[in-house]
């Protein structure tokens, strides 16, 4: 019977040969089994690196974490202020060119916690961030540079 199509006995008037129906059903079943049995590979996103920072002047301080992203940094901060204090953050590229900045709220004789974003629209984000801890006269009380890990 090589080369001839055998008709399914229940499909006497059907124009679809039995071998083709059977083969198509087998292929469909094999594909479905493969798709359903295959584990779905989902890579967990890599966590953005973070760095701790700490600036102080007398009994006043600013501390927290820098979370490094692809085109910005998030600065989580807590400021304890005697008098009025503000945290200023600048993001720089690898050539030392300032690419973005942001300022905390003024904190006066209290403690305040928040997050600010420093946009640095370059691939890979900033090479480093420089912080300035300033008083109400915009005098720098402390400054530090933190490199991208």
Structure description:
By secondary structure, the protein is mainly β. The chain has a domain at 50-147: Sandwich (Immunoglobulin-like), CATH 2.60.40. The protein is built from 1 helix and 9 strands, in the order H-E-E-E-E-E-E-E-E-E. The strands form 2 sheets. Strands 4, 5, 6, 8 and 9 form a 5-stranded antiparallel sheet that branches. The protein is globular, with a radius of gyration of 32 Å. The termini are far apart. The model is unreliable at 1-11 (pLDDT under 50).
Question: What attributes does this structure have?
Answer:
1 helix, mainly beta, five-stranded antiparallel beta sheet, 149 residues, 9 strands, globular, 13% helix, four-stranded antiparallel beta sheet, Immunoglobulin-like
CATH top level assignment of the domain at 50-147: Mainly Beta
Distance between the termini: 72 Å
Radius of gyration: 32 Å
> If helices are DSSP runs of H or I spanning 4 or more residues, what is the number of helices?
1
Instruction: Quickly give the CATH architecture of the domain at 50-147.
Output: Sandwich
* Total beta strand runs: 9
Large-scale geometry: globular
User: Main sheet?
Assistant: 5 strands, antiparallel
The SS-based structural class is mainly beta
Helix and strand pattern: HEEEEEEEEE
- Write the CATH fold name of the domain at 50-147: Immunoglobulin-like
Roughly what is the average pLDDT, rounded to an integer? Answer: 83
> How much strand?
over 45%
Q: Regarding quaternary structure, how should these chains be classified?
A: single chain
Indicate the percent of residues in helices: 10-25%
Q: pLDDT under 50 segments (min length 5)?
A: 1-11
